[in-house]
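SAMPLE LOG
Freezer: B-3
Tube label: C17
Construct: single chain, 258 aa
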Amino acid sequence: MHRQAEVAVSKVPAVTLGFWIIKVIATTLGETGGDAVTMTLGLGYLVGTAIFAALFVVAVAAQISAKRFHPFLYWAVIVATTTVGTTLADFSDRSLGIGYTGGASSLFVLLMATLWLWYRTLGSVAVATVRTPAAEAFYWATILASQTLGTALGDWMADTGGLGYGGGALVFGAALAVVAVLYVTTSLSRVALFWAAFILTRPLGATVGDVLDKPIADGGLNLGRFVASAVLLALMVGLVMLIPQRAGEHPAREERTT
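STRUCTURE (predicted):
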């Protein structure tokens, strides 16, 4: 009964293959959606960041206040983190002149600091322990940092690394495949592998999003940011409806992996 009660208050989804598919689509949507507001509408990175940051605050407050797991609310917060992560990273790297290398390095340090503070405060960074408002606050702060870092990493790989958008997508896709193999074939910490995969899905989504909406001359498909965003949103909503969504399970087993 005690374990059932713990599982019942979990408001994050079980980590399944469907979870990762939806996550990649959500992060790709964040890239195209963020660019649509800041570039296509011409509002700029600062205004775009302010808009998406406000939406993120509202969404995460609703998520933390909720009494149970709501799939659409959860994924709405994920999309909010990835859109504000896109505009914030672009603002830092481009408007402030930090550059992709400096931005990615600074954001990596911020992400590691957030995870360290979470672990020091609550004793675990396992997703299965996210059952209290404090844990949820750390969880979403970590996700926001990882989404912002992912945008910077994607841009760094495509531009500074010279691989282009398609090449960057292949590199991050291959890195995710390595993490999956390690999960299946080794006994490495499931918590560490989860966060590694979670972080890598963001630059993968960022580079895939750029492939979809950048001009053909720049290595993209020139689909248009609003068209790409609409297609990705419809696909994500459809998958959330079709793929069974349930709250995370087996918290004790997950906690032993930290």
